Amino acid sequence: MAMTVKHFFDANTSTLSYVVSDDETAHCAIIDPVLDLDYASGTLSTDSADTLIAYVQDSGLAVDCILETHIHADHLSSAPYIQAKLGGDIAIGGHITTVQQTFGTIFNEDGGFRRDGSQFDRILHDGDTFAIGNLHAEAYHVPGHTPACMAYRVQDALFVGDTLFMPDAGTARCDFPGGDARALFASCRRLLSLPPETKVYVCHDYQPDGRDLAFMATVGDHRKHNIHVGEAVSADEFVAMREARDATLAMPTLILPSLQVNMRAGHLPPTDASGRLFLKVPVNAFGGKDLRAFTANER
Length: 299
Prior knowledge:
By secondary structure, the protein is an alpha/beta fold. It has eight helices and 15 strands. The protein has one domain (about 5-295): Ribonuclease Z/Hydroxyacylglutathione hydrolase-like (Metallo-beta-lactamase, Chain A). Helix 1 (about 45-60) packs parallel to helix 2 and helix 4 packs across helix 6 (about 235-245). Residues about 290-299 have low confidence and may be disordered.
């Protein structure tokens, strides 16, 4: 069956979103859409989402689903905004509840924040199959970067989220809460056991050494050339490399607003009694010096 994959690149967060459409039925899925945030001013905008929406409308496509590969820590999701314009179920992997438990605690959410995944319309589990028009799709649970990461295989195309980057960039970090380098290695090996001609579409491209944007390589390319999980790399070698590398990385710029929004399926947190919207900044939640004794002395 013929299908079309259209990519959209947000240069501010180096994020790739996709529209995957069935040429026969003109039905489609949207994967990992972006909501724009100017962090310095606290301004949200929808330019990235509007570009994607215009493509869907101009192409005469009907949206079956909006797929999130995981709770992103580097950009906000525009899934609810797109759903309001185009329809489609918002879907994510079943281990979202683990992530909601973790970050609900970190952000000190009250009982109004549901930790059962019910903010999403559809929960997918490993091995679940679904249709995009007449296209066959399958969900893969691929933990490691986060405990809830999913990849989606649509015909001969595989959308891997942050599990794999392009071969010259390797893999994503594993030092967020619930991350696990050994689990990521196993997830990568599982995906790279698929037929070598399978097309792997990544969620980020940081364009190492200033090269042009790239977003797709085959499973065969990754087996031969992925600098982190190529055929010659052992699990122990990968874990040692990944943990050492992760220890040098700064937190993503948008991690705090992204997690608060994305764990709600892209919905914004509730407003306060005056109708104003705020996002929280939990101090030292991801490392740093414990300042509680200092602040107590200042009272």
